[in-house]
Amino acid sequence: MGKGLAVFSAAVLAVACSGGAVAQQKLVVAGYGGSFEEIMRQHIFPPFAKQHGVELVYVAGNSTNTVARLQAQKSNQQIDVAIIDDGPMYQAIALGFCAPIQGLPADDLYKTARYKDDKAVAIGIVATGIMYNKKIFDERKWAPPKSWNDLKDPKYKQQLVVPPLNNTYGLHTLVQFARAAGGGEKNIDPGFKTVIEEINPNVLVYEPSPGKMTELFSSGQASIAVWGSGRVKAFADTGFPVGFVYPEEGAYALLSSVCPVAKPDANPLSQQFVQYLVSPEVQSRLASEYGYGPVNTKAEIKDDPRVPLPIGQRAADLIVIDWDTVNQHREEWNKRWTREVER
Questions:
Q1: What is the pLDDT of residues 169-186, one digit of tens each?
Q2: Predicted model pTM
Q3: Residues of the signal sequence (predicted)?
Q4: Are 83 and 134 within one domain?
């Protein structure tokens, strides 16, 4: 653990985002890497840092990594604010890592954004669906995908990318194929069977890294993938000809969420930063820059014709999985996935 903490400390120093040389306080925020990190650094951190005279430090990692950091540091928490997907966030709350949020603008937030006892709050709605390379599809005269079952089509052999099971997008994929085969969260076996027998032959790689995912598409190695609407919009904003589909059976809801970390010497700015993230201004920015469906009813939003945002009826139709059941079994499913799917 000593080595892990040393690496963490080095990462903290390396990714410091200063609010000015005279700043006396530091606020350590853990969240996603890739394009999300860039948006946080460029657009979200600077106004808050300037207003409060605080040095904001960003520690990038996926949700599983952030929860693992919280566990490793539970006797001396270094993270002040944690941005985590909804499933791992329920785990973080159950483990006592999240403090109740104070001062939430309750009347302005959609009910789906609120967690029990305000131990966390969503900062954006993401749809898990299907991404595809429009250029390759046009050249090969392929129709855009429309169904989860399209991922089984042999023409995509070695061209499909699916995030692994410890990633929410991968989990949504497994649950969808379990449900489609008569199972579900309480009977996951049919999902494993479908993935192993019908999806696996098409998979180029089970890739968790956002940077690697875009590389695989940019190089032409991959032409279709399971991914989130926010990630796809950020990719489309680079000019890449990428499309996003809400499958006809339904896209899945992912709530990007945040909580102030519970610790004896908690910085009061942790609470203020969480409030800031759900403000109309930041919510509008996260929608325009990252493609999040906003959680604040007062946020001004404009839909994106390239990657339709999870707003309005699209947001209402998203499928929400049974996280209570999933989190009871996720560790054993992860081991089984590694043993049976990615072997």
A1: 999 999 999 999 999 999
A2: 0.83
A3: 1-23
A4: no
